[in-house]
């Protein structure tokens, strides 16, 4: 792509590349490039109009803020995000011992497999309270 752009922007290289084209083909290439240029100009015009509206709105807000005695720094102070504090882990509420390994559970989230198997076998959850 960079080579293509280099050919397009360098006069002698462009002339050498276009030398093989017939006059009709050359005219067709010129028309296509002019159509692209017109399209690009329209896009820039729309973008500039949108920016002009945006700038006008910003200036109107700035004027209103100046009249009310509000500065941009005041807005920044209001926008500070509160940092959520991470809560401490919950202490275990239930305990079971399987093959010498102690498995604990807070009572929240997924039930450990060992406790679930015992509950399915008819045990009561209170049997595992710490």
Characterize this entry briefly.
This protein is mainly alpha-helical.
Explain this structure to me?
Helices cover 59% and strands 8% of the residues. By secondary structure, it is mainly α. It folds into 2 domains: 2-77; 94-128, H-NS DNA Binding Protein, CATH 4.10.430. Helix 1 crosses helix 2 (11-18). The radius of gyration is 37 Å and the shape is elongated. The protein starts with a helix and ends in a 10-residue tail after the last helix.
Please describe the topology of this protein:
Blueprint lengths: L1 H8 L1 H8 L4 H46 L3 H7 L15 E5 L2 E5 L7 H8 L10
Antiparallel strand pairs: 1-2
Helix pairs in contact: 1-2
- What amount of the residues lies in strands? 5-15%
- What is the CA-atom radius of gyration, in angstroms? 37 Å
Q: Sheet bearing the most strands, described?
A: 2 strands, antiparallel
The number of E-state strands comes to 2
Main sheet: strand order: 1-2
Element string (H = helix, E = strand): HHHHEEH
* Helix-residue proportion: 55-70%
Gross morphology is elongated
Question: What is the total number of structural domains?
Answer: 2
End-to-end separation in angstroms reads 70 Å
Structural class: mainly alpha
Q: Count of DSSP helices? A: 5
User: Mean pLDDT, nearest integer?
Assistant: 87
Low-pLDDT residue spans: none
